[in-house]
Amino acid sequence: MQVFSLSKLGQSIKTALIGIKNAFRSEQTFRIQFIWGILAIILSFIFPLDLTQKAIVISMVGAVLGFELLNSQIEKILDIIQPNNDIRVKIVKDFSAAAVLIISISAFLVGLIIFLPYFLALF
What we know:
The chain has 123 residues and is mainly α. The chain contains four helices and no strands.
């Protein structure tokens, strides 16, 4: 039994990158969140944030993008399982979208707490 396989790891990373590429192509919300996330990460290196603050920004960006991918996954699976309008499917999709909204609002507030003092200092 092989404990570690570099080729399997490489294939897993390739598969994940294909998933990100597909999400970027097909999910407008993912593209918007991705662009805002990259901007936040860039700002975390432009402003003199400490390592903890940088780690928090990067973690929040990862959480938002991860939640958005899970939301898209849930929606796609439900569309396959139950393509017709069904109130139960709508409720599950709404819950999934709500999770993304909550983490996005949290990330925005964290961003305000971290970046606002630096922006205010510019003026």
